[in-house]
Amino acid sequence: MKAIIKLCLVWILIVVESGCWDSKAIQNMAYVTAIGFEYKDEHFITYVQVLNFVNVAKSEQMEIGKNVPVWIGKGEGVTVAEALSSIYATSQLRIHWGHVRAIICDEAILKDNKKLAHVYDALNRYREIRYNILIYGTKESFSEILAQKSIFNLSPLDTLMDSPEDINGQKSSFPPQFGYKIIAQANEKGRTVFLPSISITKQVWKEDQKKKPMFIIDGAYIIEEKQLAGWFSEEDLKGVRWFLKQTKRVFVTIPDHIKPIGTLVLTKPGHRIQPLIEKDTLRFNLYVEARAYVEGMVENVSVKTMEEQAAKVVRDEILTTYHKGLSKQTDLLNLFGEVYRNDPKVWQRLKDEGHLVLKEDTLNEIDVKVTIMHTGKYKGRVLPEN
């Protein structure tokens, strides 16, 4: 009997000792899911988006369309750490930083490499914050950006800002950029870095008759040699997507939007950039291949005609983007980076001699090949090849 009593006491002690006495219930913590940074009047101003996961957790009892409250805290300080920690004084609950998913910076921070480095340094020194955080630039008000919700009034965790991968799979423009990739690319010589620009549009969606704002990636901030080279719209940068591995699906109207004869979907394009170096002259041959399928037809044309017209559209987009960069001496197609990866010594010599300059004839040849793999379920409108 005594042995049984001793065994019970030992078991009770084991259970008590293994308990988490300092654990907190999830409803008693404030979870930061996104942070906005701006710089004004020699101070960093931080905005934190805070959610209570009890309200956003998906369950069988979850009521779709029910408004999910978003709390936004604002801090200020001469350093990033001071601005963030100033929020503690009024937070009422313990703040948890382990679920930060997105970082948004204003143009004042993006224009100053030291301030951008300060933000990154302060965030990554804190143990709770992870490296795989999405990074954006914006021209919008942070109060509007961080209060934005998804379709059906779902939480901010279900928006383009926090979950961009699914949208990029349906319509590829700029792939999501994570913090660790931005730093790696910015430290690579010759590399052009694209930081997606997030904005809000009220022109597309309505809830009944009320306009509903939604996120949109409207362009990108370009960083070269760790300095902000400028902002370019999505239209300016259409040619870039043909050189990105993350591009999955692109709609192309042929031959143009004025008199369209059909729409194709081009998938997973491949590319090759061939530098042509002769002393101090630097030119490039570009090769792009893509598979396609017919999404819709307005007129009856042959498969060969559609392939040729789609190839022309891709080529024109590349040329347009190149000339947008040429006007600002910004290497939007990442041509010089290819020289560095192939022959860093030649790249350094050309840079030292001032020959890494974009010119009208820098693009020597652009060869685009589009192959239509199938024409969809409805085949009656497609003529055989001549």
Q: How many β-strand runs?
A: 13
Question: Average pLDDT, to the nearest integer?
Answer: 85
Count of alpha and pi helical runs:
11
What are the low-pLDDT stretches, counting only 5+ consecutive residues below 50? 15-21
Q: Tell me, what's the shape? A: globular
What multimeric state do the chains show?
Answer: single chain
Question: Rg, please?
Answer: 26 Å
Could you state the order of secondary-structure elements as H and E? HEEHEHEEHHEHHHEEEEEEHHHE
| Percentage of residues in strands | 25-35%
Largest sheet: 6 strands, mixed
- Portion of residues within helices: 25-40%
Q: How far apart, in Å, are the first and last alpha carbons?
A: 98 Å
Summing up helix and strand content along with how strands pair, one would put the structural category as alpha/beta
The total number of structural domains is 2
Please characterize this protein's 3D structure.
The protein is of the alpha/beta class. It folds into 2 domains: 25-234, no CATH class; 235-386, 2-Layer Sandwich (GMP Synthetase, Chain A, domain 3), CATH 3.30.300. 27% of the residues lie in helices and 33% in strands. It has helices spanning 2-17, 53-56, 80-85, 107-110, 113-124, 142-147, 165-170, 179-186, 303-326, 335-342, 344-352; strands at residues 29-40, 43-51, 71-77, 94-96, 102-105, 134-137, 192-207, 210-224, 227-233, 249-254, 262-278, 281-297, 363-374. The strands form 3 sheets. Strands 1, 2, 3, 4, 5 and 6 form a 6-stranded mixed sheet that branches. The protein has a 4-stranded mixed sheet with strand order 10-11-12-13. α10 crosses α11. The longest helix is centred in the C-terminal third of the chain and has 24 residues, at 303-326.
